[in-house]
Write a structure and sequence with these properties.
Layout (H helix, E strand, L loop, with lengths): L1 E5 L11 H15 L3 E7 L4 H4 L4 E10 L2 E9 L9 E5 L15 H18 L6 E5 L6 H7 L11 E5 L24 H4 E2 L2 E2 L1 H8 L2 E4 L2 H7 L7 H6 L4 E3 L26 H15 L8 E8 L8 H12 L4 E8 L1 H9 L8 E5 L3 H10 L2 E4 L9 H7 L3 E5 L2 H6 L11 E3 L4 H16 L1 H12 L5 H16 L1
Parallel strand pairs: 1-2, 1-6, 2-5, 6-7, 7-10, 10-11, 12-13, 12-15, 13-14, 15-16, 16-17
Antiparallel strand pairs: 3-4, 4-5, 8-9
The structure holds adenosine-5'-diphosphate and alpha-D-glucopyranose (GLC).
């Protein structure tokens, strides 16, 4: 089959979070399974894109009423990624350093979607399925159905995968001027609560809607940032497919970003070397348990309550424990994480910023990873951490609910809390400290989690079956 994925991020070309990882892996593992197509993203001015060679494969112009714009499609001629990655460039709009966060994001992503469909039609490369991800590409199912301009794609099945329903791309109705002429009788499909809402529109118009875990799918009916009744109404076409992880990129046995590689047979001897080195780099004590947090410093991740919880943990449990944080996001939260360095030297440190290599080293060095997320559609951090023998401490929500079993249960291997609260975080850390003292149990659990199979080899078949159900 020929499957075209359309999204804002794709690892390694452009990554802000898990969306990028998943697109990079979907491209690669679908190709390995014998399927064609590829991934299309904007040509961001990211480090990777700027430092690699891209070949122009198509140039054209879209005319939207009185407005028009030129676009260029690039690809990776050397096939370094193992799958086709196409980059859409619209000068001045898409060639920016950051993936998101600009005042004109709405116009940028509508233009990106328009250019992508225009290119597919003008080059007659009709796919079997168009698979779009999150709100940045969620208008496409509407566009192929209701914009005369794209009528040749009208019968092509569309899938929308929701990686995060908190972000819907809702905008003022005035932005729809950049959408190619659409059937005005269908304006209801674009509207949600008197705003122009791409994610809601995608849920209504896509042939199928998937999300990245069954646990999160079930939550969407009760908690989806205002779209609850929509999910209730469209429930029959919704499905949960758990993400996988790229076990080639995330492999402690061959990871060039970590100091000492290891595997399930020798981790007892070698994982700790990474801890010693990381602790010395950040002024921490390798004798004590190392708790880490990696991620976007935003409300969904409960990052706002972590600094106070770290202080509360020191107050309640003593100071023979270390915390290391890697993250960036809300400037106020970043500031709180920096502020608590004072007074906690020797047992707390933070790196504010995005650092892919350091993240690998942290997964390898840590004893426990903390994820008290309020919302976590899948979560990849806990899956990477487990592959590196690092025990997850998670809030019992979404994909965390589905992938972690508490140590109090049969064959359990993680620590779960019931609410994202300071109290539950401190109680969970206290449980982890007790576990850390039981050396044999720690070793057994580390061995167990390193062998859990969350690979794409398993998850990719669920997508392939979904594509087949729409095309046969
Ligand atoms: P989300 O997509 O909601 O941010 P996920 O758990 O799905 O959460 O994926 C997060 C991804 O981003 C992981 O690959 C994680 O290692 C990475 N990541 C997050 N923050 C940083 C950071 N500051 N530096 C390096 N990698 C990061
Ligand atoms: C989103 C979610 C995260 C998920 C990722 C990849 O960013 O917040 O939970 O793992 O997408 O699907």
């Amino acid at each position: 089959m020929k499957i075209i994925h359309i999204a804002a991020e794709c690892y390694p070309a452009a990554k802000v979070g898990g969306l990028g990882d998943v697109l990079g892996a979907l491209g690669k593992y679908l190709k390995l399974a014998g399927h064609d197509g590829g991934v299309v993203i904007p040509k961001h001015s990211s480090k990777y894109i700027l430092s690699h060679t891209w070949e122009v494969v198509f140039d054209s112009k879209v005319q939207l009423g009185e407005n028009s714009f030129e676009y260029h499609i690039y690809t990776n001629s050397k096939n370094e990624l193992g799958f086709n990655l196409f980059l859409v460039d619209i000068k001045g709009l898409l060639n920016r350093e950051q993936v998101y966060g600009y005042h004109d994001d709405s116009i940028r992503f509508i233009s990106f979607q328009t250019a992508t469909l225009d290119w597919i039609i003008k080059t007659n490369q009709f796919p079997d399925v168009i698979h779009v991800h999150d709100h940045h590409a969620a208008l496409i199912p509407f566009m192929v159905k209701h914009c005369a301009y794209f009528k040749e794609l009208k019968e092509t099945p569309t899938i929308l995968t929701i990686h995060n329903g908190q972000y819907q791309g809702a905008m003022d109705w005035s932005n729809n001027i950049v959408l190619p002429n659409w059937d005005s009788k269908q304006s209801g499909l674009l509207d949600w609560n008197n705003a122009f809402n791409p994610l809601a529109c995608g849920v209504r118009c896509a042939w199928k809607v998937s999300t990245v875990s069954v646990g999160y799918l079930n939550e969407l009916r009760y908690q989806s940032n205002g779209l609850e009744s929509l999910f209730e109404a469209e429930w029959n076409k919704c499905i949960g497919i758990l993400n996988g992880i790229d076990t080639q990129v995330w492999n402690p046995e061959s990871d060039i970003a970590i100091v000492q590689c290891y595997n399930v047979s020798n981790f007892e001897k070698y994982k700790v070397k990474n801890k010693e080195i990381l602790c010395s780099q950040f002024g921490l004590n390798p004798e004590w348990p190392l708790f880490v947090f990696i991620g976007r410093l935003v409300w969904e991740k409960a990052a706002d309550i972590i600094p106070q919880s770290i202080n509360a943990a020191f107050a309640a449990l003593g100071r023979e424990l270390n915390f290391l944080v890697l993250g960036s996001g809300d400037p106020n939260i970043e500031n709180e994480f920096s502020k608590i360095k004072e007074g906690n030297e020797g047992c707390y440190n933070v790196y504010i910023g995005y650092n892919e290599e350091l993240s690998h080293m942290i997964y390898a060095a840590a004893d426990f990873i903390l994820m008290p997320s309020r919302v976590e559609p899948c979560g990849l951090n806990q899956l990477y951490a487990m592959r590196y023998g690092t025990i997850p401490i998670v809030n019992n929500t979404g994909g965390l609910h589905d992938t972690v079993i508490d140590i109090s249960e049969y064959d359990g291997y993680g620590i779960k809390m019931d609410t994202a609260s300071e109290n539950d975080i401190v109680v969970s850390i206290s449980r982890a400290i007790d576990l850390y003292a039981q050396k044999e149990t720690m070793t057994k659990i580390k061995k167990q989690i390193m062998q859990l199979d969350f690979s794409w080899d398993k998850s990719i078949n669920n997508y392939i079956n979904l594509y087949k159900s729409l095309t046969q």
